[in-house]
Amino acid sequence: MRNSLFLVFGWMVITLGSCSNKPQKAAIVEPVKPPNVLFIAVDDLNNWLGSMNNYSNTKTPNLDKLAAQGVLFTNAHCQAPLCGPSRASIMTGLRPSSTGIYGMIEDDKIRSDNPTTQELTFLPEYFKEQGYYTMGVGKLFHSHAPEGVFDESGGRVKGFGPLPDKRFVWDGFGDSDRENYGRTSTDWGAFPEADSLMPDHQSVDWVIERLQRNYDQPFFMGMGFLRPHVPLYVPQKWFDLHPLDSIQVPPYLANDLDDVPPVALQINDLPMMPSTEWAKDSGEWKKIIQAYLACVSYVDYEIGRLMQALKTSEYADNTVIVLWSDHGYRLGEKGTFAKHALWDPATKAPLMFSGGTVPKGKVIDTPVEMLSIYPTLLELCGLPANKNNEGRSLIPLIQGRKEIEEPVAITTYGMNNHAVRAQDYRYIHYEDGTEELYDLAKDPNEWDNQADNPQYSEVKSRLKSHLPSLNAQWDKNSSYTFQPYFVEQKARTSQE
Q1: Whether residue 25 is found in the same domain as residue 65
Q2: Domain Sulfatase N-terminal: where (predicted)?
């Protein structure tokens, strides 16, 4: 229809007519609905995926398939190497250094008594405000979600069970002073007997049932997996996929931490966790890794169930998927089995997008931040940007546009302790001014601290310029009592 005039109302296009003299009826074009969102969080999932490095003969066919169907970021980093502050950062769109949420915090208290967060709109709420029907189940925020965030909530089973009557290997206290350290749920072994007894299985069932419903508006569906968070318990069949003779341990250097500042050692003081030396001497190192890989393979299977349900639903062709983890997880690197650090194995985690306009089969190794999930999802769904977001949308990077500034990812652990991850370097700056610097092209295991090497002074200065200018006081409702350093830091800085 030449010379036609069009008015656009939201998603509806109405033809008013052409400039000819013939009378014409108005034609209504069916609206194109904005895409649905499937938002998948996996707890403590590091980069040991088949699509990334395939350590220890990893078996993750469904995660690898999802990555191949979209864009995989192989160098994505959390904003805090601890689930509470990491998830709060993703959901608020703000850095820990802006909110003061450096430790664990109850979901309902993220916006309590904090002038920076109290007026913020959480990521799922933003979609609700834009006309989406929002649903969520499992671990999405630290526990599940603040009251009323979702239109429909499947909740979260408390704890990380099911649990056997007695621990298999690790008592949860280790060599710690029980008065100064808490008890970790770390343990490993085959339990329970069936997948159907796992909370994650039940959560996926909840999502599958809802993917079979009809909705008169686009939906936002959050699915939060508990595994591979400790305890590393899944049924025996997942252990059988990873025989011990196929397991590789990661690179490890016994005197690795001899050249790091004292504050780094304080932060890494985790006697309630198994140490790498203990794991070596006891013969448990490969068994811990086997259990971790078994848990990852189990979650991969559940993700496969989820993807199959989406594929056979009416929403298969109009759903954007994002899968992320809240941080990495060390499996013997840097002396222990934990996250809790500003080094690469603790901060790096999977991030992938697929569906909608996302290109297929693209792999990006540029450093990016989990903080970018919020603005990227909004842009993928054609929604207006949230001006409060501190993260940058990844759409320009996905589209291959050249970065104007040096791409870096910033991780914060406690007040004024930051890591800046660039393409070839990791710079760490602690609250007392001490530093670490690693040349990752030459030293991918971060064994040789070059912070005092004058040959790297220009690199160090450049990366230092990316440090956050704001270091907010600890949020009164946020704490991390499992680590004495953070208890002392919060008490000390609150008095300054």
Answers
A1: no
A2: 35-382
Q: What is the spatial distance between Cα 147 and Cα 143, in angstroms, rounded to a whole number?
A: 11
What does the DSSP assignment read for 344-381? Answer: HHHHEEEEEEESTTPPSSEEE-S-EEGGGHHHHHHHHT
Both 225 and 359 in one domain: the answer is yes
The verdict on whether 142 is a catalytic residue reads: yes
Integer Cα distance of 187 and 166 in angstroms: 10
Beta carbons within 10 angstroms of residue 248's beta carbon: 12
Which phi and psi angles does 356 have, rounded to 5°? Answer: 60, -130
Which of 80, 136, 77 shows the shortest CA–CA distance to 104? Answer: 80
Let me know whether 52 and 117 are in one domain.
yes
- The catalytic position among 19, 77, 78, 83 is 83
Q: Please check whether residues 297 and 174 belong to one and the same domain.
A: yes
For residue 38, give the 3-state DSSP assignment.
strand
Are 18 and 86 in a shared domain?
no
Longest dimension (CA), the chain: 91
Dihedral (CA of 140, 145, 148, 153) sign: positive
CATH of the domain at 167: 3.40.720.10
135: three-class secondary structure by DSSP: strand
Domain that holds residue 23: 1-32
Give the chain's domain count: 2
pLDDT category at 431 given cuts 50, 70, 90 is very high
Please classify residue 28 by burial: count the beta carbons closer than 10 Å to its beta carbon, then call 0-12 exposed, 13-18 middle and 19+ buried: exposed
The CA distance from 174 to 186, in Å, is 10
Reported as a single tens digit per residue, the pLDDT across 197-220 is 999 999 999 999 999 999 999 999
26 and 44 inside one domain: no
Residue 209 sits in the same domain as residue 282: yes
Task: Answer whether the bond into residue 192 is a cis peptide, omega within 30°.
Answer: yes
pLDDT at 55: 78
pTM of the shown model: 0.93
Whether the pLDDT of residue 2 is over 50: the answer is no
Q: Is the peptide bond before 359 cis (omega within 30 degrees of 0)?
A: no
Say yes or no: 19 and 78 in one domain: no
Q: Tell me: pLDDT of 256 over 50.
A: yes
Token output for 137: 């189940």
In-domain check, residue 98: yes
